[in-house]
Amino acid sequence: ADGGGSAESEGPKELSDLTVGFAQVGAESGWRTANTKDIQDSFEEAGIPLKFSDAQQKQENQIKAIRSYIQQQVDVIAFSPVVETGWDAVLNEAKDAGIPVVLTDRAVDSKDESLYVSFLGSDFVEEGKKAGDWALAEFAEATEPVEIIQLEGTTGSAPAIDRGEGFAAAIAADPNLEVVASQTGDFTRAGGKQVTEALLKSNPGVDLIYAHNDDMGLGAIEAIEAAGLVPGKDIKIVTVDAVKDGMQALADGKINFIVECSPLLGKQLIEIVEQINNGETPEKRIITEETTFTQEQAIEALPDRQY
Ligand code: GZL
Where does the Periplasmic binding protein domain start and stop, copy by copy (predicted)? Predict the structure, then answer.
């Protein structure tokens, strides 16, 4: 063998001889830590060596990590792009080095789809639509205008862009529903709390908070209670993810509805890596299965929740 080439040029390697480099976003939320654990456990179980890096939500750190994986000539690079833009240069470097790249969780806006083998993750527009459809039903009988505060995820990230788009498209069906304020809380609990504190002051009549993830919704609950109001009653809350802490708040009636976004991508990522190793072509876009939860459904599901 010529050695040092990428997996497909040498034919299938033993799984234990493969190396995969994973450049993770960070550890900003319950979802992210569950995603990291699932990926690490899946590689452990498959016996495939994994190099792992945490970028603390900084794109330059992810790019550095990808460059180091290229230097180390790993067989496959996988990562969740913290934002959609700015990846073409480093992805072309991976392509020139003959190293296939798999996008997990978040997407890039590169026009050149040859820069990655597959995208594995959720349909974030659909998630936003599910949250908007619930809001339409929840406030269908409202006679007064329904004021909505939106807590956006990381600015420029695919989930923030698409969850905002899906929600806006859904609530356009009822002119009574209006997003009166929208600001990023960067997917963190602290960010959700700070932004909600500020926006409650400027929007005292708010009826609903739409948070792009549970963690910002949990921060909003703290801010609502600090303002002497009752979350889930005085101000309703709809979030995305369905991690344990969010589901507990839903069971307790502090959140009113959660759209699930599954972090359990490890098994499907292993399947893609094995297909690449066998010289097969994985599907370009693999969308994860996910559902929604009402309070009753959360109470039912909580005991079996893995994360
Ligand atoms: C969505 C993922 C988002 C989660 C947040 O797939 O990228 O990032 O919804 C996480 O909790 O921070």
Answer: 21-280
Tokens (6 digits) for 193: 């709390």
Please give the pLDDT value at position 7: 47
- State the average pLDDT over residues 135-157: 97
Q: Which atom of ligand 1 is nearest to the CA of 105?
A: 6
Mutual angle of helices 30-46 and 266-277, in 10-degree steps: 40
Q: How remote is the CA of residue 128 from the centroid of ligand 1, in Å?
A: 13
∠ Cα 147 203 125 (to 5°): 45
Best residue for ligand 1 mutational test, from 29, 124, 167 (most atoms within 8 Å of Cβ): 29
CA separation, residue 19 to residues 39, 41, 99, 113, 246 (Å): 14, 15, 11, 23, 35
Q: What ipTM was reported for this prediction? A: 0.97
Residue 135 has pLDDT above 80, yes or no: yes
Q: How far apart are CA 164 and CA 162, in angstroms?
A: 5
Burial class (CB in 10 A: 0-12, 13-18, 19+), 259: buried
CA of 1 to the centre of ligand 1 (A): 41
